[in-house]
Amino acid sequence: MIKFRNFDQIEHKYAFENAVAGADTFNGSFGTVSSGSFSSAEDGTKVIMQAEEGNNSGLPKYPIAKGEHVRVLDLTKLAGKELEIYDYPLPETVAVGDKLTATKDGALEVNSAVSTELNLEVKSVIGNKQGVVVLVNGATA
Asked: Any residues with CB less than 8 A from the CB of 16 and at least 6 apart, and which?
């Protein structure tokens, strides 16, 4: 799950677009949007940021069915901003300083070979490894 770090990111940088899930996926999946359809993708610069509801709300991996409307956050518009990430799509282990990039299935992985592409740098760990604060790097706002 992806969360904003502060309110001005919502009020002043409305970086959302509407789409439908092109396949079964999860809240927090990274990918691309083409012709209004979201697809998980390696090095994706967009992420599903859905309000969770119903019986599945709060699950570590909140499922989203193919064809469901999704709210997609465009990370290229948030250069230099911090976000919080919990549960899926985080890798099993992360540490401060790690740089995360999207895998083809929409999850995140630690990528030590990151150069200029969009990445999320881990700035701090929240709680007992419950989540992380990341800085959006490599984006062009």
From this structure: 49, 71, 72, 73, 74
